[in-house]
Design a protein that fits this description.
Structural class: alpha/beta
Helix content: 25-40%
Strand order of the largest sheet: 3-2-1-6-7-8
Bound molecules: ligand BV8
Number of strands: 8
Radius of gyration: 19 Å
Strand content: 15-25%
Number of helices: 11
Distance between the termini: 16 Å
Largest sheet: 6 strands, parallel
Order of helices and strands: HEHHHHHEHEEHEHEHEEH
Length: 251
């Protein structure tokens, strides 16, 4: 049973409520995609500094490429879970007043039917050449075999995943829209993120400082739990469908 406050119920029932959601790897956990910092997470074997940055990539392009190739394989074999689907239903209810900002690079929100998605850390399914910046053809990636060289078909340069690495700027327009959505919403959900990586982790505070009611959905405490208005402790695939029961259309 998920205890939803009267304030949250009121906002969910509101005819003019504007909603902004920030998601992290925890939302994909129940689809079978490992998170980064949980005990069985991706970072347990490698530290982020060793893999998710340009210096590490240029020092060992094959190690980094193979790590992303492994993650793509995992993602291709999984499907969205009830948490992803609930967020797509929530967007349909708040049509035009709903923004989904995701740190996830797995594309599962789009596969679940979400539309207004801002991928602030990019998308692992796209790759581009570090020399000529041409994007690789989707099929090229699908036909790559383990150990194949990941080189640009045009200039032979190194291919890299279209994700934001540490020390890299977030895509400017995507980030600006994310901040605008956080600044102008009445209700902000931070779901399945440790809130350890900036500037994305700062969005819940931006929302709160601009008058939004901020709700965290996470089985664990996070670095921002003490700064939000309400914590719903539990897995997003369980909690989100429960929260949706308070939407007028869902009764
Ligand atoms: C940048 C790559 C400008 C893609 C990632 C202050 C301001 C600005 C920057 C910084 C700053 N301080 C430090 C920085 C630098 C750095 C940073 O934040 N470092 C941290 C480690 C301190 N930030 C940057 O470099 C960013 N760029 O700021 O540009 C700039 C430029 C130069 C110099 C300065 C500034 C770029 C950040 C992007 C890094 N790229 N990944 C990839 O390989 O996937 S970060 C990586 O961590 C992921 O992308 C992910 O988005 C991010 C956060 O992780 P989470 O998604 O939260 O996942 P995590 O495993 O941590 O947590 C899972 C959570 O789920 C847990 O809370 C768990 O309890 C919960 N959970 C588990 N199961 C469930 C669940 N929840 C719900 N349901 C469940 N079932």
């Amino acid at each position: 049973m998920v205890n939803v406050s009267e304030r949250l119920k009121e906002l969910l029932a509101g005819r003019s409520t504007r909603v902004c959601v920030l998601t992290g790897a925890g939302v994909s956990a129940e689809s079978g995609v490992p998170t980064f910092r949980d005990k069985d997470g991706l970072w347990q074997k490698f530290r982020p500094e060793e893999l998710a940055n340009m210096k590490a990539f240029l020092a060992n392009p094959k190690l980094v490429w193979d790590w992303y190739e492994h993650r793509r394989k995992v993602i291709r074999d999984v499907k969205p879970n009830a948490g992803h689907e609930a967020l797509a239903r929530m967007e349909a209810h708040f049509t035009g007043r709903f923004t989904l900002v995701t740190q996830n690079v797995d594309g599962l929100h789009a596969r679940a039917g979400s539309k207004n998605i801002l991928e602030v850390h990019g998308n692992i399914m796209r790759s581009f050449c570090v020399s000529c910046e041409k994007f690789a053809d989707e099929n090229f990636l699908l036909n790559l075999r383990e150990g194949d060289k990941a080189e640009c078909g045009d200039c032979g340069g190194l291919l890299r995943p279209d994700v934001v690495w540490f020390g890299e700027m977030l895509p400017a327009k995507v980030w600006q829209k994310s901040v605008e959505a956080a600044e102008s919403c009445d209700l902000f959900f931070t779901i399945g993120t440790s809130a350890a990586v900036y500037p994305a982790a700062g969005l819940p505070m931006v929302a709160g400082e601009n008058g939004a009611y901020v709700v965290e959905i996470n089985p664990q405490e996070t670095e921002i739990s003490s700064h939000v208005d309400e914590c719903l402790r539990g897995p997003s695939a369980v909690v989100l469908p429960e929260v949706l029961k308070h939407l007028p259309m869902e009764n």
